[in-house]
Write a structure and sequence with these properties.
The complex is a heterodimer of chains A (about 525) and B (about 375).
Chain A lengths: L1 H9 L7 H7 L3 H29 L10 H36 L7 H20 L18 H4 L2 H30 L12 H32 L13 H35 L6 H14 L15 H13 L1 H15 L8 H24 L1 H7 L3 H31 L5 H28 L13 H30 L15 H4 L18
Helix pairs in contact in A: 3-4, 3-5, 3-17, 4-7, 4-9, 4-15, 5-7, 7-8, 8-9, 8-10, 9-12, 9-13, 9-15, 10-12, 12-13, 13-15, 13-16, 15-16, 15-17, 16-17
Chain B lengths: L1 H15 L10 H34 L15 H29 L7 E8 L2 E6 L4 E5 L5 H4 L17 E4 L3 E8 L4 E5 L4 E5 L5 E6 L4 E7 L11 E7 L1 H18 L9 H15 L1 H4 L17 H4 L2 H10 L15 H13 L11 H7 L2
Parallel strand pairs in B: 1-5, 4-10
Antiparallel strand pairs in B: 1-2, 2-3, 5-8, 6-7, 6-9, 9-10
Classes of the chains: A mainly alpha (about 525), B alpha+beta (about 375).
The structure holds copper (II) ion.
Chain lengths: ~525, ~375
């Protein structure tokens, strides 16, 4: 601890300015900012791809894009949103908040922190530029299933390398977060006194360390199948295409929780603050988070019910998946109980938090419907599933990110954001989000498969509606951009403790904005 | 509250409308349908209770009404209750679901078996006992897709050769794929099974009412994934028997004699048909291909060069690319015809012919 402080102090006066400040920075706040801006840019990039998809699907027939290009759009939309937008945003929050919330001066490994961030743009450039190589970008879906993925061109190799780089970045980030949380808490801050956001990130970081190598391994197997004559997944050479799916989803299911657990953490900070009442069941929230994380390792094959696995396996994975509803329910009940008989106000962070609880729960319920194997047989790979995972990822993870941004912007910038714009952003987003995704449930039930560029006539009306919602939702995000820029540029001064009910260290012990090096001497937590 | 009421009425409306699972036509589909309705209502019920409480709280417990915050937290009894109740509900859901799975997976004692093979982008139906083999591909004309003609009623859900089965019989499907993973899905029968290269998976259905039922490939399988529909015609026993008889006559009539030597025009005429049905999806009807993913045939070094190399790539395909081995799919006459066609049409003029006997000599 001493050493870290000394390091922080003597670099305090001579850090570079301008562009070099950002390239060489080892400061957790700078790096957090970089992560968040990167993720916002990726959100817009992935969003543009989504708008192209929706524009093509506005009417039956092929109007705007070719089927090949359509597949590239869906593939890159998925990869960019998962690895470029949601995950880096969560890491951005961890960078800003974890040291401040546990009373530490910085992250444990500041240089590795710099490196974890700067790998991301490299991977992003590789992914985006793959649109311009011969044959276009990867078109086998973000899940990269062979043998289809073995067919594509050079862009598939670029995707594999991009995934490798993103994986290295995530693993380094996760190691950094675990070490920071375990070693650098202020005196008196026991594990069970940590803010829930810190807890959720501790557990998430372990998930990342466990599964990112699995992903890296399996895409490497794709690479050797493509170029070095192995036949891991090529049936003609004695390989097994289904094995890829098992390995991929062994990563992929925990990945879902990697994207949602920090969101749970953010929401668990915000609801008590605006209800002015402590979280109803702190300990049970911690245990629920841990149970979800552990269960996430034994449910992967629910993504594969239609592969025709043995009946006993279908039963096992159905039961295990249904079980996840219990700790998830505990979380939702806890949030509601925290609000119950509080003294609530409804500033933008709270609006997004309430939106999160409602809409994420709808996604949870449709998840339960998907868990029921026979029903999943009907809705797997249809728009029902598309609706389901956008309810948990957009109105789940992304809403939590929005909520967190509005919640902590005053702390980060020292200025209040514009409440009117914030509320407008919330209401427009929520209305258009539902116009966009709610009809997709019905499309899926009625039999529309996902990942198709054109569809039968009976699906036309709801597809048109969804497209209207998509453009509304997409454009509403510009309000966020305006709001954030205005807040950075100026505005009403924010108090150190901006929110009356917020009680973690960054609110109680630090001014807004916090000094470049906060907690040079650790606070004492009672 | 308004939102909840809307949700309720939506749910009720969805139950009947064309936006729910289609009317079940098999026992399994019926079970799935009922399970889905049951679970949806349970979820709607829980949603109303939990969010009723939340919105009540939002309404009443706000600072602007002067509500003072209580300070209660941690209550073990409450936490046990809200863990145990959901658990019990889940068990209640698991019981009928388990029954449905056991029924769905029991493909034993079928009345007939059809082998289904997925290709990029068509289905092959092989009636083993009847000795009938069909290729089933999209029949919607191109101009409807690109918008220059009015779209028909079954736009994108129509095929040249439908699968035909008798009503009331347990049909077992054996599914596999030749190139990439596809998924055979007919919602009305409650059946969706991936067709995976290297595996043979089974599934079954028993359709009770004669009629035409439609579905689509449900696993992303490349460029024309959205264009490989499935159509099943369920016929009465008599009509089915008639269909089988017709099919046999037809295939006898179409089959060309593999021992004959054909003229250039005969081969090219047959080759054009084979090309349109099997090759045009990738290499395009005019032979221009879609480079670099799908090379042009026009001016191709292989299609204008050594005959043996040309025959070899068509028969054996090229592993790791979308070019499949057509040796297994096409007979000697069709292979000879399509190679001759590629070498002497689509802008190519090698002038050489490939006869069925040449292909036959290469098999073994
Ligand atoms: Cu397919």
């Amino acid at each position: 601890m001493e050493a870290t402080n000394a390091y922080a102090q003597d670099h305090g006066h001579d850090h570079p300015t301008g562009l070099m400040r950002w390239i060489t920075t080892t400061n957790h706040k700078d790096i957090g900012t970089l992560y968040l801006w990167f993720s916002f840019i990726m959100l817009l990039a992935g969003g543009c791809l989504a708008l192209l998809i929706r524009a093509e699907l506005f009417q039956p027939g092929l109007q705007i894009v070719t089927p090949e290009f359509f597949n590239q759009l869906t593939t890159l939309h998925g990869l960019i949103m998962v690895f470029g937008a949601i995950m880096p945003a969560m890491v951005g929050f961890a960078n800003w908040q974890v040291p401040m919330m546990i009373g530490a001066p910085d992250m444990a490994f500041p240089r590795m922190n710099n490196w974890s961030f700067w790998l991301l743009p490299v991977a992003a450039i590789m992914l985006v530029s793959s649109f311009f190589v011969p044959g276009g970008a990867s078109a086998g879906g973000w899940t990269m299933y062979p043998p289809l993925f073995l067919q594509g061109g050079i862009s598939n190799d670029m995707t594999i390398f991009a995934v490798h780089i993103l994986g290295i970045s995530s693993i380094m980030g996760a190691i950094n977060i675990v070490t920071t949380i375990l070693n650098m808490r202020a005196p008196g801050m026991t594990l069970m006194k940590m803010p829930l956001f810190v807890w959720t990130w501790l557990i998430t970081a372990y998930l990342l360390i466990a599964v990112m190598p699995v992903l890296a391994g399996t895409v490497t197997m794709l690479l050797t199948d493509r170029h070095f004559g192995t036949n891991f997944f090529n049936a003609a050479g004695g390989g097994d295409p289904v094995m890829f799916q098992h390995i991929f989803w062994f990563f992929g299911h925990p990945e879902v929780y990697i994207m949602i657990l920090p969101a749970f953490g953010i929401i668990s900070q915000i609801i008590p603050a605006f209800a002015r009442k402590p979280l109803f069941g702190y300990a049970s929230m911690v245990y629920a988070t841990a149970s979800i994380a552990i269960l996430s390792f034994i449910v992967w094959a629910h993504h594969m019910f239609t592969t025709g696995m043995p009946t006993s396996a279908q039963l096992f994975f159905m039961y295990a998946t249904m079980l996840i509803a219990v700790p998830t329910g505990v979380k939702v009940f806890n949030w509601v109980a925290t609000m119950w008989r509080g003294s609530m106000t409804f500033e933008t962070p709270m609006l997004f938090a309430i939106g999160f609880v409602c809409l994420f729960t709808i996604g949870g319920f449709t998840g339960l419907v998907c868990a029921i194997t026979p029903v999943d047989i009907q809705i797997q790979d249809t728009y029902y599933v598309v609706a389901h995972f956008h309810y948990v990822l957009v109105s789940g993870s992304l809403y939590a990110i929005f909520a967190g941004v509005y919640f902590w912007l005053p702390k980060w910038t020292g200025h209040m954001y514009n409440e009117k714009l914030g509320k407008l952003h919330f209401w427009l987003s929520t209305i258009f989000f539902n116009v966009l995704f709610f009809p997709m449930h019905f499309l899926g039930l009625a039999g529309m498969p996902r990942r198709i560029p054109d569809y039968a006539l009976q699906f036309a009306d709801f597809n048109a509606l969804a497209t209207v919602g998509a453009f509304g939702f997409g454009l509403s995000q510009l309000i966020l951009l305006v709001g954030v820029i205005k807040c950075i540029k100026g505005g009403e001064k924010a108090a150190g403790r901006t929110w009356e009910g917020a009680d973690s260290l960054e609110w109680t012990h630090l001014p807004s904005p916090p000094p470049y090096h906060s907690f040079v001497t650790p606070p004492v937590v009672k | 509250m308004g939102a909840l009421a809307a949700l309720m009425s939506m749910a009720a409306w969805a139950e009947e409308s064309k936006y729910n699972l289609p009317t079940p036509q098999s026992e399994v589909a019926q079970e799935i349908f009922d399970l889905h309705i049951l679970i949806m209502w349970v979820c709607v019920g829980i949603f109303i209770v939990v969010f009723g409480a939340m919105f009540y709280s939002i309404w009443k417990h706000r600072k602007s009404l002067g509500h003072k915050a209580a300070h209660f937290h941690e209550n073990t009894l409450v936490e046990v209750i809200w863990t145990v109740i959901p658990f019990a509900i889940l068990i209640a859901m698991a019981i009928p679901s388990t029954k449905a799975i056991l029924n769905m997976r029991d493909a034993s004692n079928p009345d007939m078996t059809i082998k289904v093979t997925g290709y990029q982008w068509k289905w092959e139906y092989d009636y083993r006992t009847e000795g009938i083999k069909l290729m089933s591909a999209l029949s919607t004309p191109r101009d409807q897709i690109d918008g220059s003609a009015k779209k028909g009623e079954n736009y994108l859900l129509e095929v040249d050769n439908a699968m035909v089965v008798p009503a009331g019989k347990k049909v077992r499907l054996l599914l596999t794929a030749n190139d990439v993973i596809h998924s055979w899905w007919v919602p009305a029968f409650g059946i969706k099974q991936d067709a995976i290269p290297g595996y043979i998976k089974d599934a079954w259905f028993k359709a009770n009412t004669p009629g035409t039922y439609r579905g689509q490939c449900a696993e992303l399988c490349g460029k024309d994934h959205g264009f490989m529909p499935i159509v099943v015609e369920v016929k009465s026993a008599d009509d089915y028997a008639k269909w089988v008889a017709d099919q046999k006559v037809k295939s006898a009539a179409v089959t060309m004699d593999p021992n004959k030597t054909y003229s250039a025009d005969e081969l090219k005429a047959q080759g054009e048909k084979v090309y349109a049905a099997n090759c045009a999806a990738c290499h395009q009807a005019n032979g221009a291909g879609l480079p670099p993913a799908f090379p042009a045939i026009t001016g191709s070094i292989i299609a204008t060069g050594d005959k043996a190399a040309h025959i070899a790539i068509v028969m054996n395909g090229k592993p790791g690319t979308a070019m499949a081995a057509f040796g297994k799919q096409l007979n000697d006459v069709d292979l000879a015809a399509v190679v001759t066609y590629e070498r002497n049409a689509l802008g190519n003029k090698t002038g050489d012919l490939v006869q069925p006997a040449d292909i036959k000599a290469l098999r073994k």
